[in-house]
Amino acid sequence: MVIFECEDHPEGIFTGIYDAWDSRVGHGCLALRIAGQGNLELFASYRSVAADPEKAQKVARTIRRRMGEDAYQSIYQAALSCRPEKADCIYRVLVQALSPGVKDYTARRILWKLQDPNVAQVFEMARRVGNEAHRYLGFVRFRELAGGILFSEIQAENQVLPLLGDHFSDRLPGENFMIYDSGRGDSLLHRAHYPWALLRNTSPDREAAWAVTEQEAHFRKMWKGFCRSISVADRENPALQRQLWPLRFRNWMTEGQDF
Q1: For the chain, does the N or the C end have fewer beta carbons within 10 angstroms?
Q2: Is 4 exposed, middle or buried (0-12, 13-18, 19+ CB in 10 A)?
Q3: 68 touches 111 (CB < 8 A)
Q4: CA dist list (Å): 55 to 20, 35, 49, 107, 141
Q5: What is the pTM of this model?
Q6: Which residues in the chain show pLDDT less than 70?
């Protein structure tokens, strides 16, 4: 067994898929793993795969051409999952869809085969990542720092920042902002009127991240007061609140702090 170890992001996984397929070892004689996850296996050789943008783009173009844009989005979202088995599941699905002799019509319907364990896992991972990203579209809260930068901190279960970039860039095109995922050390950066970028393994200055402007402090106080004033104590429903506003989001939201 040959195990290809790739980096834990879509570009790294797509590069691993390219190298594994190109190795001609045989689909049944290899596996893809996320580097640093899982235990070493006996009687297996390991190959480390460095992310290569050109190889990743080739895989992405092939998926889009053969399987369609919707399938690509599902596979891309699955690659953002926190599940350690995601790389190998995606590879097995692509083997079914892109092997020689498979017609494009069949390739576009591969993700409909939910009775297949690998397809079912890819579908479930993509669904969970999409749901979490959708929630963060409403739960992200920015604060204005002393330097005029809008800063937000989240702690996501999955790698949702790539799914948030276009949304907030469209909503705040003229603002300099940063969304920091403290659980992973990734940062989404946007310079006013420029495309957003994603930086990995970053850590902002914690003191600077809380040095807010006087106006920001004033508006934060008013927003908390508004949230308290509209609450009706006799009609509180903690179970429903936890369903619509999960506890794991509250520490990073203005209205959830200091309550």
Answers
A1: C
A2: buried
A3: no
A4: 12, 18, 11, 21, 36
A5: 0.91
A6: 258-259
